[in-house]
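Sharing a chain and its predicted structure for anyone who wants a worked example. Both blocks are below, sequence first, tokens second.
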Amino acid sequence: MEVRLFLGSASMKKSDYILKSLINALGVFIYVSAVAWVLFNAKDIFGEPPGLLIPLFLLLLLIISATITGLLVLGKPAYLFLNDSKKEAFILLFATLAWLILFLIAVVVVILLL
């Protein structure tokens, strides 16, 4: 019971799911934007690295990125699912995915308008 009080109740209102999913999706979007910026400007930031370091950097970045975005998208839904709040877990997961799809559509629209 102590852990539940510290972490908050497993049940949330529908508006809480929308807000939490938006925050998670914004976190993913901001992180991905930062990584894309670094990759776009890598030559200016790092110069010309030796050949072996580029694949090493990219593979490590892939692993770190998968972990960070996985936690942002799946962390709270997994917690809810494991605490027998399966319906809430799926709502939060799919709401987060819906926000990410909306962000993707917005990026595509911006690309098409440029």
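Comments welcome. The first helix runs from residue 2 to 7.
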